Structure formats: C-alpha cells, structure tokens
Amino acid sequence: MSETTPTSHTFQVDLRGLVDLLSHHLYSSPRVYVRELLQNAVDAVTARRAVDPGFDAALADSPASVRIVTDGKRLSITDPGVGLTLPEVHKLLATIGGSSKRDEEIEGARRDFLGQFGIGLLACFTVASVITVTSRSAKEPDATVVRWTARDDGSYTVTEAPAAEHPEPGTTVELVARPGEDWLRPEKVAGLAREYGSLLPVDVTVEGGEAPVLVTDTPPPWERAYQSPTARRLALNAYCEEVMGFPPLDVIDLDVPLAGIKGLAFVLPHATSPSARPAHRVHLKRMLLTDTADNLVPEWAFFVRCVVDTDSLRPTASRESLYDDEALAVTRDAIGAQLREWISRLAAEDPTRLESFLSVHELGVKALARHDADLLAAMLPWLRFETTAGSTSLPDFARAYQPIYLADTVDEYRQVAQIAAAQGIGVVNGGYTYDAELVQALPRIDPQVKVETLQPGVISASLDPLDAEAELALQGFLNAVRARLDPVDVDVVVREFSPVSVPALLLDDREARRERHRAEAEAQADDLWGGILASIKQHAPRAQLVLNHRNPTVRRVSAIGDPELAGTAVESLYGQALLMSHRPLRSADTALLNRSFMNLLEHITKD
Ligand SMILES: Nc1ncnc2c1ncn2[C@@H]1O[C@H](COP(=O)(O)OP(=O)(O)OP(=O)(O)O)[C@@H](O)[C@H]1O
130 vs 35, 37, 38, 68, 603, CA distance in Å? Predict the structure, then answer.
C-alpha cells in the first residue's frame, strides 16, 4: 500500500449554517442581538479603563455613554471603548470563537467582562445581512481607523477608513437589516435596550424614534439613596409592580457577597403552588440575563420572586440562564438563610405583618419549618392546625392535651374528631400537607410534649360496652340489622359513648378500607382479574357501625318490632355516619342509601 503525504487543511465554516444553529437552537429569539451589542460596548468601555487610567477622569462626573441610532433599516451603536487595532480585527472579529476577554494579560480584568465565548457578534446575523465594525484603538495614540465589513455569506473585507470617521477611540458597529426584518425598528430597539440594559453602569441612548430615549436608570433601585425607609419601600413596591407585575406583600434585601449577589426578594401577594415554576430576574454584571430563572432560590421559598445582580455566577452559552454548578448551589443556600432570617425577624418584631404573610403563605412556611428546628420553634405559635379543639397552634394544644394523638389521614381524623373531642382526647389532623411531619417534630422542640399515632383502639376504648342484660335484650335486633349491612361489608355493634347527640359512628381502619377496595375491584373485574384479586383477599377487620345506646333515637330504633323497618332505620343510620365521615360512597353504599330512603318515605306515606 503506497503512503501519501499528509496534507494540512483548515476547517471551513458554513456561516449560514452556524447562524441558523445560533438563532434556532442557542438563543430563544433574535432579540438577543441587542444584548450582544450592548454587552460588547460595555466590555469595551471596561477594557478601556484597564489600558487608559485617565479615561474616567476625562469624562468628569458623567458615566461613559453608548449611543444607538436606528431608522429601522440600519442600526449603529457607538461606544467610547478600547477599540480594535488592525491585527485585532483579524484575530478577534474574523475568528469565530475568538475573544479578547480570555486574554492572559488582562487576567485581572477578565472577571469584569460580560462576554467570553467569542460568538456574540454572530447573533447580529440573525437580523442583519451585513455587519460593519469601524474602530479606532485606544491602545495607540494615533491608531488608524479600521473597517471590517462582514456578510452573511461568510465573506468579509478589512480596509482602513479616513481618520475623521472615528475621531475618538472607540467602536461603531453598523447593521443592515435583512429584507423584511423589523427587529431594527426604533421603538423595538429602545424596548429591548431598556429590558436588557436598564441597570448598566453606562448611559445608553436610543435615537431614531420621536425623541432620543435614555434607557438606563442606575444605580439599581436596591442601591439608591432614599429620603426615608418609607420612601424606599414605596419606590421598591413601584419597581416590583413595573418589572414583576404585582404589588409585593413585603420586600426583602438580599446580599450574598460570596456570589457577588445583591438584590431584592419580593413576597408574592397571593398564594402559589409549591410546584409552580418560579421566575426570577437575574442580571449578570448589570445586564439582564434572564427573567425566568428557576434555580436561584431553594424550592421551599416558592413565595418570593427575586430581582438580583451577580458578578460571579456563570451564564450558559446562550446567556439566557444560570449554569447550575456548585457556586449556584451555595448561593441558593445563602439566599435561603436570608429568607429564614427575615421570617424569624418578623416573628419577633412584627407579628401583625407575619400573620398577614401566613394567611397567604402558611403552606410554604410549613414546608420550610420541617427542615429547620429554629424556624419551627419561632413559627410554632403562629402556625394553625386542625385539632379536636378547633383551629389552634400546637403549643396551645399541647398545653391542654397530653398526649397529642396524630391522625394520619383526613379520613381518619373526620371519623373520630367528634367523639374524641367529646371524650377529651386531643387529636390533630395530620392529613394536610406537612402537618404530620411538623407534629412529629414537636417533641424535639419541647421534650415535655408526647405525640402518639392515633390507633383505632384509642377511640373504641372510650366506647363503653353495655351491661350484659341490655346486650342480651338487643340480640334479636342486632341479628336482623347485621344481615342488612352485610352486603356493604359492615358490622354493627351497640356501645355507650359521648356525645349523646351522635347516634352512630363509623369506625374504619386502613386495613379494612383496603380490603373493601380490593373486593370492589374484584366485583368489577373480569374472570381472570377477579380470580387474581380473590387470591389476595385478606381477612382484615370489617368496618364497624357503632350505635350509641345513649342516643334516644337509637334506643327507639332498637325497640322497633318489625325487623324490616328496623333494618331500614339502621341503613339510614349507616348512611348518616358514612356522610359524617366524608368518605366517598361506593356503588353498593349508594344503592343501600337509595333503598333505605325510599323505604322510609314509603313507610311515612303509607296509610
Ligand atoms: N464594540 C467593541 N469594541 C471593541 N472590541 C469589540 C467590540 N465588539 C466586539 N469586539 C471584539 O470582538 C471579540 C468578539 O466579540 P463577540 O461578541 O463575538 O464575542 P465576545 O464578546 O468575546 O464573547 P461572547 O460570545 O460571550 O459575547 C470580542 O472579544 C472583542 O475583542
């Protein structure tokens, strides 16, 4: 086999393909071209400061200014930045991925730049067919003015331009709109420049519309000096309405030096689902990176929306979201700590405000308190739970009841609440989100408090058996009515309990319920499935209808001589107990209730 001499080639880049890739897959919309231009202008000003220490002094007190002029077809943006020399134009502008912002020699300043990838300028090709950069470098006193003109077919030219075209150091980038493209309209450009750049530390004006518009407004609202705390609060409320679209319930200052983060967390004025996608506004070195960041605060903090500026978190290449790395995780924790501090401070200093906060966001706070014993201790007096003593705080409840029984589900709680209350047994409904975990955490805060899981035995223990004679006298009645409730898998017993006003109680534990669901599924299943379900049948205890012998109605029912009518009456008592337990009706229950109701009607109306 003959060997051929290897030849060296350079990759060819299909610019159209690349622009297509950027515009359809990297950036969410062509609108980002304004951000890329602003970013380059701001970076150029930052770089100029590094090479020209007298730059700021020459500007006196006013910030550097960046000017955008557009008539809808052509747009130019001029900055007084570091500019570019001829070799730099070849090296940086004509090389995709080439960036001066990674240079070793300006390592110290590198972290000050917004750009880093060397692809930003290409974003302009999503709206323009021609890009012209005219630049005079600030690095040499009499630098020549260079002009680089690039077309979207991938070709470019570099020429020298007359010195008068750029008398001062800096750069002008000019775009020629693609035919039919309206991204360069003055109003649109002003809107985008304001959206991305309102907090930038340079003055940015947009000309071409009815009047020139200054789109920047610095320093950021959280850093401005205000006449009084009230004036500050009002201004921040107005800012929240403007950028977030809601009047905040409260405003919390955020300051995480670790991640160079400063900003504000606004408390939502309405309840929100913990699973709702949060949307925070994140600025990177004062440029808006995204208004839909969802990974900036811990999940439990779903009651705030933040506006922040960071100088050190990393953006993704599209620069539309934050890179989810270790630094962001540490930042999330730090922001979480500041939100916790705010809640503890409110509890100590402003209980009325805390109550109005809780009336909206109690669920979020409960979620948070599960993992934070200090916060739980601080918040416990303010958090409400459903208990057999009504809606109350756990410390108050624990003072009146020992031990505290915890019903695991809403069903269980409803079944026993009435009778437990009458017996002086303290039960908390643990069926609502987070409540069971918080009740169980209680002994950690106060070791005096005992919490026990509610077992059915606790309640049935306070259902007193009848004396033997009375029990015997009811045998005939019980036999008749048990047969009537057999089809719904319910046993009937008679006990004495308080309150007298409750005629019957349906006691049902989870095992019995599961077995009934299985039996119902079996009844509805075809042969194959019916067989399988039957094979897992358990002999779990049945649900029990406990009739209260102290209740006058029950006494009268048990004395009815006609077994048919007694059966109908007990079916009605079952229906009432079932409804009181708030459990869903199975088809057999509905049929039974229907029948007993019709039978009663018939009995009342027959002559
Ligand atoms: N207005 C400007 N003034 C001076 N130099 C500029 C200007 N615009 C672009 N450049 C030079 O061109 C290089 C490439 O710019 P480009 O926007 O493509 O990438 P970048 O800003 O370095 O990085 P990124 O892709 O993250 O934006 C820059 O690194 C910078 O050196």
Answer: 18, 14, 18, 17, 93
